[in-house]
């Protein structure tokens, strides 16, 4: 994902331990409503047994930290069950943006954007 907003998201210090492909998938899901792959779908729907079995080597090593991050940072409207995920994906970018602005996830990404002007973040989404 080449979006400058996604680049700012991926630079968030709380994501340093996550594999790059997981950061990409989370950015796509939270900001644009893209359907994540099987592992993240299992994590976001709290199907941890399935997540353990389908995690690749990189995600297996960061499993607990990824789930903690989702638990602490993801908007409650975006995760917890398959139904909630489907609703999140169906939201418009504007609706997702409104929710993200209210939560710590968006606030922390916006802090990165303002502190690192060299990222040249696309403010159209913001």
Characterization of this structure:
This protein has 126 residues and is mostly helical. The protein has one domain (4-119). It is 64% helix and 0% strand. The protein contains nine helices and no strands. The protein has helices spanning 4-10, 20-32, 38-44, 48-54, 57-61, 63-73, 82-90, 93-102, 104-115. Helix 3 packs antiparallel against helix 4 (48-54) and helix 8 packs across helix 9. Mean pLDDT is 80; it is low at 112-126.
Topology:
Blueprint: H1 4-10, H2 20-32, H3 38-44, H4 48-54, H5 57-61, H6 63-73, H7 82-90, H8 93-102, H9 104-115
Helix pairs in contact: 3-4, 8-9
Question: Main traits of this protein?
Answer:
126 residues; mainly alpha; 9 helices; 64% helix; globular; disordered C terminus
Domains, number: 1
Terminal residue distance: 17 Å
- Note the main sheet: none
Category by helix and strand content: mainly alpha
SSE pattern, N- to C-terminal? HHHHHHHHH
How large is the count of helical segments? 9
Total number of strands: 0
Helix proportion = 55-70%
Low-confidence parts: 112-126
Q: What's the Cα radius of gyration?
A: 14 Å
Globally, the shape reads globular
- Beta percentage is under 5%
Which whole number gives the mean pLDDT? 80
């Amino acid at each position: 994902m080449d979006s400058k907003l996604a680049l700012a998201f991926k630079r968030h210090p709380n994501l340093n331990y996550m594999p790059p492909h997981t950061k990409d998938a989370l950015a796509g899901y939270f900001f644009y409503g893209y359907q994540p792959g099987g592992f993240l779908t299992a994590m976001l729907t709290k199907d941890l047994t399935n997540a353990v079995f389908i995690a690749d080597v990189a995600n297996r090593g960061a499993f607990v930290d990824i789930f903690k991050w989702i638990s602490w940072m993801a908007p409650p409207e975006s995760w917890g069950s398959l139904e909630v995920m489907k609703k999140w994906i169906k939201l418009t970018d504007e609706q997702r943006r409104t929710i993200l602005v209210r939560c710590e996830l968006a606030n922390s990404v916006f802090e990165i954007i303002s502190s690192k002007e060299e990222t040249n973040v696309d403010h159209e989404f913001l």
